[in-house]
Amino acid sequence: MATNQNPFAAFTQYFPQAAQNPFADMTKMFADFKTPQFDVSGAMNASRRNLEAVTEAGQTVVENAQAIARRQAELARTHVEKMLKSGKDMLVNGSPEINTGKQIELARAVMESSLNNMREVSEMVTKSGFELFDVFNRRAAEQLEELTRSSSTSPKKKAA
What we know:
single chain, mainly alpha, 0% strand
């Protein structure tokens, strides 16, 4: 028949205070333990500023996309007007032999114009990307500064 014995009896023999509260030392140890306070308002402000940066980035994307679309439409309109004018000029002059030189010149001009237009639009797209990157880069730098500032103002551990 088993008897009800305290499994901590041997332990309490060497540490009598543990008989009353086996966690007494741990309670003392954790009483002095300080946890850092979580700054809810700071986190909300940081989130708000992040959303503002995303909103600004979205506005930048939309504005640049509109500018690129307007420029592409303008370039296409100009290109079509040149083609129509060249077509009319070739029809008026009649002879295919005479128009061969004009067709070659037109093809060269169209190729050069198309390449210049593509370069211009690609530069606009690149500029747009840099502007977008600047918005996020600026916010990331602000966030690092805030983090550095908050970590330097947090309470330091007391030297024992």
